[in-house]
Write a structure and sequence with these properties.
- The complex is a heterodimer of chains A (327) and B (268).
- With 327 residues, chain A is mainly alpha-helical.
- Helices cover 75% and strands 0% of the residues of chain A.
- The radius of gyration of chain A is 30 Å and the shape is flat.
- By secondary structure, chain B is mainly α.
- Classes of the chains: A mainly alpha (327), B mainly alpha (268).
Chain lengths: 327, 268
């Protein structure tokens, strides 16, 4: 068989012809050559396609960031950094300050977290420690996943027609202005929506606690509660924190349910029952009605802030989980 | 004592779910009839009317989004599962993680500037692009996780028999992992079926039945949002019926996904 080393003029075609003609006649030979060339071309095309698709996702994310930054430049040039702590949002007089929305977003999200975290942790402990298998575990798991599956407009719709009257009656009883809509109502709805994220993450973390650790504690006479408090909690502390961060990320970006029950008032909320606005809800409400370019650009700057905050929180949560699962 | 407290708190999570499901079913079931499905909404004050434009619009927008997102997502997932250590894979995986956390309204804003502004009008196709961007992370993650679970020996045996690379992926690896990939696809469709925020300023809504994807189109969640926040009782009734249909659709997709996933034992 000729090799290209001994015979510099020989091409790949010659080599193949020599080897294959030992067994098969020439007609089939040529067909097999053409098929193998086509094969190699298709293989390369397929590999390139895979690379292009993976690159496309990267380009997409970079494009999102660039678009947000470029579109908020007019507002950044005009208003400067004071935008972030300006207390007045008055589009009619072209005064834009994002502070009411930052406050509204933080209030609703953290209040939702405070309400939902006990329930999420309870679900995580029950599913991870007490009932890892069985009918109750399946029921609870499906219920929690179903809570995550319901679309947010339906939460908002239900909240508007069921929760708001209840809160209104409650406000009448305690003497605040009975609007019904407000920061409190939206926090309650957000807390319901956000339970599954911390619960499923917590359950995974609790299931990862190595049994020798737990069995050692049990054999030393610890009760269930003591094992949970002294063994499981310290071990899964960072994982549970990451789950809470993921819940926070979801709560920060939630738009529809909050828009429907928060009252849409671009003022700084006076107390927990007053109406307000979050960054997402003000964008949803005023984007299509933004009359001037500066108005639109101010809204997009809000979107940029929202984007950065949620991405940072989600990244920190995922980093913690990765470090935890690789230990 | 602790145990009862914890189980009580955990069981309390069932209450809001039952409340929401029960209320929607109770309110929605009385509003649905045949004319509900085939008519478009009538002007305020006239009885009757239905949600046909929103049903058809939802179907078209979600369908086009799926057609756009599924090939890109599956191929990217294949790339990420095949090359675990290359530079592009690292940045691509990071991008998928970032994309998963982006709020849906921000994606709507971006697609507004990418497609709605250049074309000059709201359109269903821009809504589909926004929804496709939201589907991508789920499809890529589920494909990657499914294919990572397959044993390497499968790939090596196919390659050793002389199979070309593309044949091996398409005819050996993909069919083996089709259960997990399919459940990822269905999960993503269920997720975007109920999304409103990206459609607020891309597809925008349309009171007439239209199948033109370069013009504004209505969609079920958009209809629910607009009619729920309106002051008219007729529109509230339509919104309740539409909520029931949307809920049933999403729940059905999730149940089918769960049944397929259990058989394949895939962790998403």
């Amino acid at each position: 068989m000729e090799t290209t080393v001994n015979n510099p003029g020989a091409t790949r075609r010659d080599k193949l012809r020599v080897t294959s003609s030992l067994q098969t006649p020439d007609k089939v030979n040529v067909r097999r050559l053409r098929r193998s060339y086509r094969q190699i071309r298709t293989e390369n095309a397929f590999r390139k396609t895979l690379i292009i698709m993976a690159l496309a996702i990267f380009v997409l994310v970079v494009g999102i960031m660039i678009t947000l930054i470029v579109q908020s430049i007019p507002s950044m040039k005009l208003l400067g950094v004071k935008y972030l702590w300006g207390k007045v949002w008055d589009p009619v007089q072209d005064i834009y300050g994002a502070y009411p929305f930052l406050l509204g977003t933080l209030l609703t999200s953290f209040l939702a977290l405070i309400i939902s975290v006990p329930f999420s942790f309870a679900v995580a402990i029950v599913l991870g420690e007490y009932y890892p298998r069985g009918w109750f575990s399946n029921l609870l798991k499906n219920v929690v996943e179903l809570i995550a599956a319901i679309p947010s407009v339906i939460y908002g719709f239900w909240g508007l027609f069921v929760l708001v009257p209840i809160v209104r009656n409650f406000e009448l009883k305690i003497g605040v202005q009975p609007m019904g809509v407000g920061i409190f109502t939206s926090s309650v709805i957000l807390s319901i929506m956000v339970i599954p994220y911390a619960a499923s993450m917590g359950r995974e973390m609790i299931r990862m606690v190595p049994s020798p650790l737990k069995e050692g504690a049990y054999s030393l006479g610890a009760t269930r509660w003591e094992v949970i408090r002294s063994i499981i909690m310290p071990y899964t502390k960072s994982g549970l924190f990451a789950g809470v961060l993921l819940s926070l990320g979801r709560a920060l970006g939630e738009t529809m349910a909050v828009t429907m029950v928060i009252g849409n008032t671009s003022l700084i909320p006076k107390n927990i029952f007053s109406p307000g606005n979050t960054m997402a809800s003000v964008i949803a409400n005023e984007f299509t009605e933004a009359a001037s370019p500066v108005y639109l650009s101010a809204l997009i700057e809000l979107g940029l802030v929202l984007f950065l905050v949620t991405v940072v929180i989600n990244m920190i949560g995922k980093r913690i989980i990765k470090r935890f699962t690789n230990e | 004592m602790f145990k009862t407290l914890v189980i009580l708190f955990a069981s309390a999570c069932v209450i809001p779910l039952l409340a929401i499901l029960g209320y929607i079913i109770k309110e929605g079931i009385t509003k649905i009839n045949w004319s509900f499905f085939v008519n478009v909404p009538k002007p305020v004050g006239e009885a009757g009317g239905g949600i046909a434009n929103a049903l058809v619009g939802s179907f078209i927008i979600v369908g086009v989004a799926a057609i756009m997102a599924i090939p890109v997502g599956i191929l990217s997932g294949i790339y990420l599962s095949e090359n675990k250590t290359s530079k592009l894979a690292y940045w691509s995986r990071l991008s998928v993680d970032i994309l998963q956390g982006v709020p849906s309204i921000v994606i709507g804003i971006v697609v507004y500037f990418w497609i709605v502004k250049p074309i000059g009008s709201f359109s269903a196709i821009s809504g589909s692009v926004a929804l496709a961007i939201m589907m991508l992370p789920i499809i890529v993650r589920s494909t990657e996780e499914t294919l990572k679970l397959l044993p390497d020996t499968l790939k090596e045996a196919a390659l050793a028999l002389g199979m070309p690379y593309h044949r091996m992926i398409l005819k050996v690896i993909l069919p083996c992992g089709i259960g997990g990939i399919l459940s990822g696809v269905m999960l993503s469709v269920a997720r975007i079926a109920g999304e409103t925020a990206p459609l607020l300023f891309t597809a925008f809504g349309n009171p007439y039945l239209s199948t033109n994807i370069t013009k504004p189109m209505h969609s079920l969640p958009l209809l629910i949002f607009n009619y729920a926040t309106s002051p008219y009782d007729d529109w509230h009734n339509l919104a309740w019926g539409a909520s029931l249909i949307l809920l049933l659709w999403v729940l059905l997709l999730n149940i089918i996904t769960k049944l397929t996933t259990r058989k394949w034992n895939i962790q998403l």
